[in-house]
């Protein structure tokens, strides 16, 4: 999708992607480190991260269409390269957040042939991984935004 209502789609989608990654990352960190938030928010973090996962390739695709309108430059190339890599952070973030939600469901954990100790270890590992990937996704979206601003406005 190149345009929306005659305007380039990328600048419009990018706002959804930025807000989505930042919100999903912060919510993921909250549910990873605060068990009460995990219980209270239920499936919401997984849905938020899934919506973000859907928006990221739309934004990237619109950006690739917009890229063709500009002369090649190192800053634009850096931005597009970083933008292409964002899915590598948001995809695993969605998987980990969904796994955190599944690990709270007795219907899931009672069917697994694992001891309580094993389930606790898995839970801790998934929570640490979720927080780490969330921080990495937030840092990545900030780097992408900075490189995009430099590509458009210089600096």
Question: What's this entry about, in short?
Answer:
With 155 residues, the chain is mainly alpha-helical. It contains seven helices and two strands.
- The backbone outline, from C-alpha atoms, is elongated
Gyration radius, rounded: 18 Å
Strand order of the largest sheet: 1-2
Extract low-pLDDT stretches: none
- Could you spell the SSE succession in H and E letters? EEHHHHHHH
**Average pLDDT level:** 93
**Helical/strand content category:** mainly alpha
Helix content: over 70%
Tell me the count of domains.
1
Strand content: under 5%
**Number of DSSP E strands:** 2
Please report the distance between the alpha carbons of the first and last residues: 29 Å
Largest sheet: 2 strands, antiparallel
> What is the tally of helical segments?
7
Organism: Gordonia hydrophobica
Domain DUF2231: 6-153
Keywords: Membrane, Transmembrane, Transmembrane helix
Transmembrane segments: 12-34, 41-66, 86-103, 124-145
Describe the overall structure.
The structure is a single chain. The relative contact order is 0.17. The mean pLDDT is 93. This protein is 81% helix and 3% strand. The chain contains 7 helices and 2 strands; from the N terminus they run ββααααααα. By secondary structure, it is an all-alpha fold. It is elongated. The protein has one domain (3-153). It has helices spanning 9-33, 35-41, 44-67, 74-85, 87-102, 106-109, 116-153; strands at residues 3-4, 7-8. The chain has a two-stranded antiparallel sheet. Pfam families: DUF2231. It comes from Gordonia hydrophobica. This is DUF2231 domain-containing protein.
């Amino acid at each position: 999708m190149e345009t929306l209502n005659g305007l380039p789609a990328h600048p419009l989608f990018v706002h959804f992607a930025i807000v989505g990654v930042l919100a999903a990352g912060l919510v993921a960190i909250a549910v990873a480190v605060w068990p009460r938030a995990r219980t209270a928010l239920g499936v919401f973090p997984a849905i938020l991260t899934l919506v973000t996962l859907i928006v990221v390739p739309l934004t990237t695709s619109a950006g690739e269409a917009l890229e063709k309108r500009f002369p090649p430059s190192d800053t634009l190339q850096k931005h597009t390269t970083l933008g292409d890599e964002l899915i590598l952070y948001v995809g695993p973030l969605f998987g980990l957040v969904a796994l955190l939600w599944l690990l709270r469901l007795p219907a899931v954990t009672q069917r697994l042939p694992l001891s309580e100790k094993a389930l606790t270890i898995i839970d801790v590992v998934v929570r640490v991984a979720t927080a780490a990937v969330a921080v990495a996704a937030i840092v990545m979206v900030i780097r992408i935004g900075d490189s995009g601003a430099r590509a458009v406005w210089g600096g």
